[in-house]
Every structure is written in C-alpha cells, then in structure tokens.
Design goal:
The protein contains three helices and two strands, in the order ααββα. With about 100 residues, the chain is mainly α. One of its GO terms (biological process) is protein folding.
Amino acid sequence: MLVLLITATKGALLNIEHIQLELHPPLFSACSQETNYFPKSFPLNEWFPSLFKSYGDCSMVKWSFFNIPLTHWLLLFFILYILVSIVGLISLILDNKKR
C-alpha cells in the first residue's frame, strides 16, 4: 500500500505540472518532436503513427472526454488511487493494533 501511495502521489504531482503547462503555457513552450527513441526491433511509432505523433507543443490539449482534458481525468484517478491507498494503510494499521 505504501508503494501505491508513493507512486500515486508522484504521478499526481507530475500531472499537476502538465496541467499548469496547459493552463498557463510559457512563452517558448516546445516539446521534442523526435520519435527516434523507439528501438528498431519494436518501432511503435511506425506501426501506430497516430498514437505516437508529436505536435511539438506541450500546452496543446489533444484529447478530451465530456469536454474535460485527459490530464484532468488523470489527476482525478491519481487522487482516487491516493485515497484508496490511504484507506488501505489505515485499515492495515488498525488491523495490526487489534492483534
């Protein structure tokens, strides 16, 4: 449970940074358009080019569901993971105290 709490917290913090990029883009925002980091034996960027297309602008919202961007959905799920891990840790602590 502790590992889930740590990874969910780290994911939420990184996601908050991405949301800040979307909401308040810097003047010179540029993301790498390079897709040569895929191994030659497993070229996902060639097999699924629409999935791995880089636009070069980190602040551009490319996907939304119910008019809510993907980054906001991810933050919601990370918060849910954090809450589940906290409840799990509390239940483990209370269970150990009963013994």
